[in-house]
Amino acid sequence: MNHFHRGPDGELWAEDVPLRRIADAVGTPTYVYSRATLTRHFQVFDAAWSGVDHLVCYAVKACSNLAVLNVLARLGAGFDIVSGGELARVLAAGGDPAKIVFSGVGKTAEEIEAALTAGILCVNVESAAELEQIDVVAARLGVRAPISVRVNPDVDPKTHPYIATGLKRNKFGIPWAEARATYRRAAELEHIEVVGLDFHIGSQLKETGPLVEAIDRAIELVDALTADGLAIHHLDVGGGLGITYNEEAPPSPAEYATTLIERLGDRPLRVVTEPGRVIVGNAGVMLMRCLLTKRNGETDFVVVDAGMNDALRPALYDAWHGIEPVGVPADATQVVDVVGPVCESGDFFARDRVMPAVAAGDLLAMRSAGAYGFAMASNYNSRRRPAEVLVDGDRFYVVRDREAITDLFAGEHLLPET
Ligand SMILES: *Cc1c(COP(=O)(O)O)cnc(C)c1O
Questions:
Q1: Which atom of ligand 1 is nearest to the CA of 240?
Q2: Where does residue 334 rank: exposed (0-12), middle (13-18), buried (19+ CB within 10 A)?
Q3: Which positions are catalytic?
Q4: Ligand 1 in contact with 146 (CB < 6 A)?
Q5: Element holding 134 (H helix, E strand)
Q6: d(CA 320, CA 5)
Q7: Paired residues of 348 in beta bridges
């Protein structure tokens, strides 16, 4: 459920603010997030785990705007980070370092040092080599580094191959068969403190089956480690719960949590989760304007002022996003390709889409754009990245300015004249 809806004037609103008002004030393309939706999604997800000791660590990479992180921090969220940059963002947004978990297949010594210095909850270790490196950094700092081993449970998450992460073939985590030995090694290292076990099998998961398979394997390992005399305090089940973009019907947070909690039995494990998309995906839209329409051969094109540099998911994953007029939709429908100005045929937002007729100057909204939207934006084609706006009731706030033209080459330098 989200707070983007048709207002009393028939136009698309975010909470109590007409999106047209935001476009007039801020321009397009612009990402618009709804605080009420973010709050609701976080609280529903958090409440789903209320029967067990748990911590919800929002996956920062889905949408890392400081204001979004701050809203979640105020709700008590923890954070799942994948870089030193994300660590800095969470700290700048007022996040509690003691609720941060640090994932990622290639962490630098500087990043590990910054995380340990900040006093994070746990580093999710993704290789034997990384374990040794963390021990060295922790020794230098004179601390013990809290770690989980991210195991690769080798299950098929049944999602897009680019966002499947828990298959043997993927680069992520430590192979199942080596996990116990890695834990034995961790227990030997003086500056490592084992606190948990972690997995994350993929994103936009539409069923619980693969997660059940993964958690069952994880629990088997927890039991074996306990028998080895190693205390595992928390089980991190990753993120990945899918959302409805079109007609998908993923499990609800309650269904998802109940299914996983059932598998835990009465083991005294704290559950850590790393949801991204399910919190922020449907809490954001991208506003864009139709520049012109044209017909090439058999195809009618709606050319908009946003491109794949602003919203990459359709080009990268062939992802489907709802696109609708912000104004009162015309009765007449048309079949169109909605495309951006970028010099790539992959620069499309919709193909053969049946939608209300659109004319030059019309405002459009791309739905479900909160996750992996702005976060994946780039300056390709020397295009400025969009502004970001957060709506709160009947107010809206620019939470990131649109880049200036000079931002595009800030930090670049000409060669000396001679
Ligand atoms: C991307 C990622 C997540 C979040 O995935 P969603 O599908 O957005 O919930 C969680 N954990 C890790 C390790 C990730 O890489």
A1: 7
A2: middle
A3: 343
A4: no
A5: helix 128-141
A6: 20
A7: 339
- 165 falls in which pLDDT band (50, 70, 90)? confident
Average pLDDT, the chain: 96
Q: Helix/strand/coil (H, E, C) string of 199-253? A: CCCECCECCCHHHHHHHHHHHHHHHHHHHCCCCCCEEECCCCECCCCCCCCCCCH
Same domain, 143 and 195: yes
Residues 178 and 319 in one domain: no
Ligand 1 atom closest to 61 (CA): 1
Q: How far is the CA of 277 from the centre of ligand 1 (A)?
A: 8
CA 319 – CA 296 distance, rounded (Å): 23
Ligand 1 binding pocket includes 203 (Cβ within 6 Å): yes
Residues in a beta bridge with 175: 152
For residue 278, the surrounding DSSP H or E stretch is helix 277-280
Cα 63 to ligand 1 centre (Å): 11
- In CATH, what number is assigned to the domain containing residue 145? 3.20.20.10
| The last residue of a domain, from among 227, 248, 279 | 279
Mean pLDDT of all residues in 183-194: 97
